[in-house]
Amino acid sequence: MDERDAKRARDASEDLDRLARESYKAAVDRAFDAQKSSMRLSRRFFENWVETLEDHAELNRRTMNSLQELVREQREVFRMLSRESLDAYDGFLDSLDAYEEEISKLEERED
Fold first, then answer.
1. Do residues 45 and 52 touch, judged by C-beta distance below 8 A?
2. Most distant CA pair in the chain: distance in Å?
């Protein structure tokens, strides 16, 4: 290996070392930033915990009201479908009665 190859190897090694240090520093900086952000979020949460709980309770109230309205709507739809089904069944039974009467009339005429 000549001097020029050795210099290139040293330069490459130094560049690799520099890039590794910069990458590590960037990762550590990001980790500290994430930790600071998490601490700020935690502090804000605990400072405003009453407001947070009230907001959560309001959200729960709205959700329950929506669910109650949905149940009312579904109950009305079920009643309507039940009425329609009952009407259809009554119509079916009436058609059987009418058919039976027609058959009876035909039998009477044949006799």
1. yes
2. 129
Q: Record the pTM.
A: 0.43
For 57-79, what is each residue's pLDDT tens digit? 999 999 999 999 999 999 999 99
- Encoded amino acid at 106, one letter: L
Q: With DSSP H G I counted as helix, E B as strand and the rest as coil, what are the percentages for the chain, rounded to 5? A: 95, 0, 5
Compute the distance between CA of residue 109 and CA of residue 35 in angstroms, rounded to an integer: 98
| 89 SS3 class | helix
C-alpha gyration radius of the chain? 41
- Distance from C-alpha of 55 to C-alpha of 52, rounded to nearest angstrom: 5
